[in-house]
Amino acid sequence: MSIEYIPQMFWVQIGDLEVPDKMPTFILKYTGKINIALGKPASQSTTWRNFSASRANNGNRASHFSSGSCSHTEHETTNWWQVDLQGMYSIASVFIVNRDTQITGYYGYFLQDIEVHVFQEAPSSGLPNGTVCATHIPAMGANATLQCEAPVIGRYLRIYRRSSETVETPKLVFCEVEVYGRPVTTCGGMWG
């Protein structure tokens, strides 16, 4: 990510003359992308051992499970991981780092049948009811970028494990979640 400051001179009309204003103004131009989920409050449906939700948005992309950078839910039929972005954003994509990338043939199934939902208000702990941003059906490899079909506006992002499977891998495990988008502002109560 880079931020570029562009000096912008404003002119003042004095009679028939246009003269430069005394103070140049700088316009902030965003020229890259930033992970808007980094270090924000995270939660998950359940926690297996001490593999908490906050491990998945701490900026550490290490994928080996023993590195302490992975989150992990208990075995259950509906699993989810969530981040509170602490503001309204237009969300464009989500980047997910899978567990133990050297053996993703097995661990890729932990991230099969996932769906990304975005909410403007805090969601309930039940089934998905937000705006769908993206879905990923096949087993995931080392990592994946899930592009929203169209940018979705919201404050909370939740990743669901859509599968109702109850044998072998009914859990949600990943080592980093990065969310990319831009802040939105309100104008007369409307998002824009």
Fold and architecture overview:
There is one protein chain. This protein is mainly β and 192 residues long. The chain folds into two domains: 1-32, no CATH class; 42-191, Galactose-binding domain-like (Jelly Rolls). 2% of the residues lie in helices and 46% in strands. It contains one helix and 14 strands; from the N terminus they run E-E-E-E-E-E-E-H-E-E-E-E-E-E-E. The longest helix is centred in the middle third of the chain and has 4 residues, at 104-107.
Assembly status: single chain
Q: Compute the number of helices.
A: 1
- Overall structural domain count: 2
CATH topology of the largest domain: Jelly Rolls
Main pleated sheet: 6 strands, antiparallel
Beta-strand percent range: over 45%
List the keywords:
elongated; 2 domains; 2% helix; two-stranded antiparallel sheet; mainly beta; six-stranded antiparallel β-sheet; Jelly Rolls; single chain; 1 helix; 192 residues
Summarize the structure.
Helices cover 2% and strands 46% of the residues. The chain is mainly β and 192 residues long.
